[in-house]
C-alpha cells in the first residue's frame, strides 16, 4: 500500500476547510484515510497560527516510512521546516525562467 499525505476537503459550499491526512493513494479525496495529521483553514489570515496546524511527529513518521506528499502539503511542510526542497516550481513560462535565474544567481553568490 502506498501512502500519500494530502488534503481532504470538508466544510460547506464556498467555505472550505481541509484536513491534512495520510491516506492510501487509491482512496477518494474525501474518503477513507489512515490518520489525521493536521488541518488547513484557507479562510483565516495568512499570518494566523491556526491557518495550518501540523502534527510534526506523525508526519515525520510517515515520511521516514516512504509516504509521498502532495504539492500543496509539500509547501506547508517546507514553510514549517519539516522538510526542505520538496516544493517544485512548475511551468515553462517567463515566471519559471525568472525563478531559475534567481536561484542560479543566489547559488553563485553563496559560492
Radius of gyration: 16 Å
> What would you call the structural class?
alpha+beta
Number of helices: 3
Specify the CATH class.
Alpha Beta
Outline the structure in words:
It is a single chain. The protein has 111 residues and is α+β, with helices and mostly antiparallel strands. The protein has one domain (3-86): Ribosomal protein S16 (S16 Ribosomal Protein, Chain: A, 2-Layer Sandwich). 32% of the residues lie in helices and 28% in strands. It is built from three helices and five strands; from the N terminus they run ββββαβαα. It has helices spanning 56-64, 71-80, 94-110; strands at residues 3-12, 15-24, 35-40, 52-54, 68-69. The protein has a five-stranded mixed beta sheet. Strand 1 (3-12) and strand 2 form a beta hairpin. It is globular and about 45 Å long. The model has no long low-confidence stretch (mean pLDDT 89).
Features:
globular; 5-stranded mixed sheet; S16 Ribosomal Protein, Chain: A; alpha+beta; 111 residues
Quick description:
The protein is an alpha+beta fold and 111 residues long.
Any chance you could write out the topology, listing elements then pairs?
Layout: E1 3-12, E2 15-24, E3 35-40, E4 52-54, H1 56-64, E5 68-69, H2 71-80, H3 94-110
Parallel strand pairs: 1-5
Antiparallel strand pairs: 1-2, 2-3, 3-4
Amino acid at each position: 500500500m502506498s501512502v500519500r499525505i494530502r488534503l481532504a476537503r470538508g466544510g460547506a459550499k464556498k467555505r472550505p476547510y481541509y484536513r491534512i491526512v495520510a491516506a492510501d493513494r487509491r482512496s477518494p479525496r474525501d474518503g477513507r484515510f489512515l490518520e489525521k495529521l493536521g488541518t488547513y483553514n484557507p479562510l483565516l489570515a495568512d499570518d494566523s497560527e491556526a491557518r495550518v496546524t501540523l502534527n510534526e511527529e506523525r508526519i515525520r513518521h510517515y515520511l521516514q516510512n516512504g509516504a509521498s506528499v502532495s504539492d500543496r502539503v509539500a509547501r506547508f511542510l517546507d514553510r514549517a521546516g519539516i522538510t526542505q526542497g520538496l516544493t517544485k516550481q512548475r511551468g515553462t513560462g517567463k515566471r519559471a525562467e525568472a525563478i531559475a535565474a534567481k536561484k542560479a544567481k543566489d547559488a553563485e553568490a553563496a559560492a
